[in-house]
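WARN retry 2 of 3 for item q-0093 after timeout on previous attempt; input resubmitted unchanged.
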Amino acid sequence: MSRGAWGNHEEHPSGRGQARHVLGPAAFCLLLALTAGVPANGEAEKNPVSPNSIAAKFAGEVAGRIKMASRHLEEISKKDDLRQLFITGDRSALDAEAKTLTTEFKGALMLRLLLPGHYDVELDADPPLGYASMDLLQKAGNSKNPLPAEVHNFGSPGAQVVIVRRVEDADHNLIGLLHLSLSPDVYLKLDGVKGMVGYLELNQDIENNSLVLGTAGDRKFRLGNPVKSDIAGTRWSINFWPLKATAKGLMGKAKLPEVEGIPFLPVIIAVLVNPGGRG
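OK item q-0093 returned
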């Protein structure tokens, strides 16, 4: 039969043209059923495509704060006038200088200028100088490499972020130690978590002991293995459990923003609109 007899419906004899018109309402109903659990307020777009980018974002923010404090402490350790104070060994002068320098750090609790071998625990001080600090000071005295930041006394009134640096003379001999105590509220805070879909933990790992320093999100997502991002200059890491799509979750009206980094809804729509895979 000639082309003109069928007009613009060349596929009508095979039924393909009709099938597409019939599929429209069916596809719409199926799409409604599948997306019943997906929020319409854009929640699916609140997470970046890659869960790794979420973990890296928070790790980078915390690392940035620690880097600024560590860098300034390192600069102070190299000042000639400070070196002279340690060489002189005047305890009152060192204490006075420590009080002045403390104000140069955001969220600082106390800066201690310590003479090697001339310090001991101060458990009643605020903040305390505890046994964890004794261990860290000893390591700093024996190591030329900067030590990572740690959290001490977490969960108690004496909680503090601790950074220790060496003070050396012109011949690189140890002449002093800087013990900086910082507020955990300032340096461990997790910004920008509002609306995040998933669960996040900030952990400290020392000698196979893991301590949770902060959390964000909904703990119900803490299933399986997390995406991990280490925090530079510290003993900490970010562990992130993203929202994961499953067949069970789909039928149970779970919120499914993406499947392995691929937006879920566009895949469904593409399949339903073009079921034959051809134009």
